Amino acid sequence: MADAILISISNVAVTLSLGVTEGERRRPQEVLISATIGLRDGARFESDDIHDTVDYAELVAYLQEGLPQLPSLRLIESVAERVAQHVLAHALVGWVEVRVAKPAVFPAPLLASVSVRREKQA
Questions:
Q1: Could you list the mean pLDDT of each consecutive 10-residue stretch along the chain, which spans 122 residues?
Q2: Cα-flanking dihedrals φ and ψ of residue 63, to 5°?
Q3: Fewest CB within 10 angstroms: 2, 53, 95, 100, which?
Q4: Interior angle at CA 73, CA 99 and CA 10, nearest 5
């Protein structure tokens, strides 16, 4: 088995105006976003420099500040896709799996969520 480097962030709380109905979109809702990022083959951390890896602080900032600025997000599936495309834009990323959970859909402990896995095209 080849070496693998994975970076994970879990349950980043993000407040978005989304939903199927206009009434639902008028009430901002919290979603929880998690991502597992697979770095491309050959990635190494010998330099101990943040520029040689994925800056997860930048990713969290995108989730909490950038996503709420995007227009017309209705579905958590769309949220997951946007996050995946953002992560895949990083040169070191080979693939990403994003999970978006929407706690407000059902009474606890039920949780609606969606996951997408995308690979960078060669």
A1: 83 92 86 94 72 87 94 89 96 95 82 94 78
A2: -65, -45
A3: 2
A4: 20
**DSSP letters for 13-65:** EEEE---SSHHHHHS-EEEEEEEEEEEPTT---TT--GGGS--HHHHHHIIII
95 phi/psi in degrees, rounded to 5: -160, 165
User: Which residue in the block uniquely carries the two structure tokens 């990083």?
Assistant: 90
Question: In angstroms, how far is the first alpha carbon of the chain from the final one?
Answer: 21
Query: Whats the size of the chain, residue-wise?
Result: 122
Kindly report the CATH number that applies to the domain delimited by 6-119: 3.30.1130.10
Residue that has been written with the tokens 């979603």 in this structure = 31
| pTM for this predicted structure | 0.89
- DSSP lists the bridge partners of residue 37 as 7, 96
* Parallel, antiparallel or unpaired: strands 112-119 and 6-16: unpaired
Q: Looking at residue 62, what is its pLDDT?
A: 96
**The predicted structure's pLDDT at residue 3:** 75
